[in-house]
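precorrin-2 dehydrogenase
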Amino acid sequence: MNKNFLPIAIDISNQKILIVGGDHSAWKKLKILQRFDAKVEILAKNICEEIKQSGVTYYEKTYHKKYLNGYLMLYSCTNNEALDRQIVEDCRQAGVLVNIHDKPALCQFVSPAIYRNGNISVAVSSNGEDVYESIRLRDKIKAYLQ
Ligand SMILES: C[C@@]1(CC(=O)O)c2cc3[nH]c(cc4nc(cc5[nH]c(cc(n2)[C@H]1CCC(=O)O)[C@@](C)(CC(=O)O)[C@@H]5CCC(=O)O)C(CC(=O)O)=C4CCC(=O)O)c(CCC(=O)O)c3CC(=O)O
Ligand SMILES: NC(=O)C1=CN([C@@H]2O[C@H](COP(=O)(O)OP(=O)(O)OC[C@H]3O[C@@H](n4cnc5c(N)ncnc54)[C@H](O)[C@@H]3O)[C@@H](O)[C@H]2O)C=CC1
């Protein structure tokens, strides 16, 4: 894959983040983001009960680029490659950072495997090439630090 991801830490206070998709993958992503007190909103045609009852702001609608205004970043968990490609194009135009779940080639940024303890975060990524190695290393570092 011809990509070169820069690891950074980004301030998300008072920034809105959109997850497109409302099923299992979206739920997992939501749980990770909530650990960072992110202001996450969900947009999907169908949203599962777990998400609806979690207290998150959600919109049960079909995706359209007109909904992108005001978001710092977007995670797509639609499980639909044609739609994902459209979302990538729309986000690039709207200036919204975009991640496509499990599709590194389409990602503008990828999510590392994180261990967080207070103000210290350890984030492991593999340039999108080997997520299982990232998770394995994160777990080793976590065990070492605990
Ligand atoms: C490129 C990236 C894009 C992105 O999504 O950002 C990506 C891609 C892919 N993930 C795949 C599979 C799984 N990923 C997980 C879990 C996580 N994946 C995360 C990140 C990333 N995953 C980015 C790269 C990061 C890097 O650079 O290393 C973590 C670390 C962070 C997060 O998601 O926030 C989070 C751990 C959260 C935690 O433990 O804290 C699980 C386990 C699970 O879900 O329980 C499975 C198996 C079950 C399943 O398939 O779902 C596959 C299919 C691989 C295959 O089997 O072939 C691809 C596609 C591919 O590798 O080509
Ligand atoms: N056991 C596990 O660890 C996992 C299991 N799964 C399973 O794999 C399958 C895939 O799960 P997901 O990745 O969550 O995908 P999914 O296909 O289940 O959900 C896609 C989501 O995107 C939404 N969506 C699709 N097109 C849309 C549009 N045009 N506008 C707005 N919203 C739109 C749908 O309404 C839905 O909420 C499911 O069966 C799930 O249960 C998925 C991830 C992990």
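thats it. Residues 16-106 form a domain with the Rossmann fold fold (CATH 3.40.50.720). The chain has a mean pLDDT of 96. bye
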